[in-house]
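name: query_chain
kind: protein
chains: 1
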Amino acid sequence: MNIIASIYIRNNKTVRVKSGDLRTLKVYDDSPIDLLKKFEDVGVKEVYLVDLGSAKFLEKNNFILLEILSQFSKLKINYSGGLRTMEQIGGAFVAGANKVTLGTLPVYDKHQFINCLMTWGNKKIVLAADTINSCLKINGWKQKTKINVFDHIAYFQSKGLLNIKVTDVTRDGTLKGPPLGMYKKIIKKFPNLNLTVGGGIRNLNDIYKLKELGIQNAIFGQAFYEGNISFDDVKNYIKN
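structure:
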């Protein structure tokens, strides 16, 4: 199983929030560039870069920082946050993103999302299925919908979707443990999709549990930033 480091950014700084709640916003000392280099040094191959400013505050996408990060490192960058138009998505790729993750656009404009799959290819486009009680949450997790996550994924799989990222919003940044039961259902229903999961990982043991389930990719964040997973842990996991 591939492990992906998450870096949340706002105002060119590294930040974190719990379950999308801005009242829990925390700024970290390490810059995004410093973290990227350190992750690369221990063998990480991909980072999940969340532009919190554009996702939550409707600020302009920070493509300047994205471009600097992409030039500074050989790591693949999956960029997410506030991408709601074809122009913005194209801008992310021009700035150096290897993939983009979209959650709100597929809900508001299915045809546009399908157009993204055809324009950039299904290996470059990731559907974000961020959920509470199996229903989607969108707009920077500020808006809950009644859209069933399984129906949502099934629809786009029929249109050529390959990559999905599934997050239980109530677990994100909380260190409460990953929702293994939900992931089992996703794997059973969509065995041919490339699944990335994130949220709730407490330690390295949780990562091994996800691996045993047969998950292809897991995003780790809060456990690292709070000291439960170290650079040595990451390095040893990747080596073994």
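note: Residues 2-239 form a domain with the TIM Barrel fold (CATH 3.20.20.70).
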